[in-house]
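Assemble and predict.
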Amino acid sequence: MGYDLARMRDMSGKVAIVGVGDTDYHADYAAARVKDPNYHFLDSEGLAMKAFYRALEDSGLKKEDIDGLGVSGPVIHERMAELLGIQPKLNTSGSIWDTMSAAVNAIYSGQCETVALVYGLAQRSMGVRYGGAQIRGGPMSYYYYHPWGWSSQGAHWALMFKHHQLKYGSTEEQLGAVAVTIRNHATLNPNAVMHDRPMTLDDYMQSRYVCRPLHLFDYCLVNDGGVCIILRRADKAKDLPHAPVLVDGYGVTTGGKDNTQMQWLVEDMFYTYLSTSGKQAFDMAGMSPKDIDHLQPYDAATVHVPIYLEGFGFTKQGEGLEFCQDGRIGLGGELPVNTSGGMMSESYMMGWNHVVEAVRQLRHEAGARQVKDVETSMFCHCSMIGAYPFIFRRGA
Amino acid sequence: MAQKRPDRTLGGVHDTFWQYCNQGELRLQSCSRCNRTFWPPMPVCDTCGTFDLEWKPLSGRGKVVSFCTFERQYYDELPPPVDCIVVKLEEGPQFLSNPQGFTWKDISFELPVKLTFIDCEDAAGPFKLPVFERA
């Protein structure tokens, strides 16, 4: 399974993220918790629109400049184009990783010049649940094992961590360090849902189990929000208000043989998906793990963080959780991770907020949580559907 | 007395799997050409593409490679705690199931287990559920 490295290298750095926008995660969540009757709650479409107009303003572009559209969440692309009043030449829908790679390809090939990727999901208001008998779609592992009482996306991560424990002797306390580090980062981000909720390792250990061995604080949040990311030809991104953030590399390895029986999740702990897709991304970017200053792993649960570190080669297999101790993944550490609070403590935006934070860090506008002299950042999703890493670099 | 369980995925090849279970047999599809055994059911061999898959009886022996316990309720029929195990079957596939006669407190890495069936019932009627006890 080869790929044309020369062509991939040529695409590296040719497309830039020029605008980002997100919604008021902290205020929206706080108002929802107390059911504030005077608060203007937005639905999924409204959240997506709010994020779009913020990203557009951030980019310094006009709406007429947008000639491609990617959408995610319950909002469909023709409705989104209608709401935005644009006629895009690219329509793509799906996850942030699917739409972002489609946008990079379309811009690089000349199909369009400026693509807005828009996401909105009022999942808390809609009462979205991620487990139980009503789940009948998605990857087969989400629903096929109902008769054995096995359900929920979160249960996958419990099985993965239990195997890590059995194989390497990892402890819950070690995993707690990941949760505490990410929460500490959220306290430095005024827009994080958990901005005002500091957490100690003791708080973590005292929290109830949801799916043993994982505690409540091992899991990501469920909250409402929207995100928009605007990408543009890098050669047309130089005169805009912010430093462009270049998409230098990406890779994909989707779930393959024996995915549903969970061989890759349990015994492989996604090492094959991560190492294979990571090599593509590093090769395209002309980089290796030592070139990465900042990591934004999709933290559906704490255990993802050590798994990515191992899979991408930041550490040896079995040593990812040890690396997460003693401040190495915190601000000022060797490899700061999820500096805005990730999905566990900032906002569950299915990876979209990870990209926004990578951009803010690379623009050097992350305020109290700024990583010093950061020049590169890596984002990745990995789950039963595969692994999708992206490498970003601060442009001139 | 049959335990109430959440609904199975039924229809087509899925029915065949449960029909064998109801006879007290654990059979999974296999491709004799590629020496591959599949779970969950497949319409074709993932390697050679043949539709001619054979329902092969399994030994019922395996080892526990992971487990988890639901402490929060996900199904009306199953109040927590609900123990689940991943059994690596002797023939290769990893099979998600429940421990029978032991709990998470008794599990160790690669604990040997053997197949048994328990009487269950879902919206489609009574059925036998493959679970595992200590070997």
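The CA atoms of residues 37 and 315 of chain A lie 50 Å apart.
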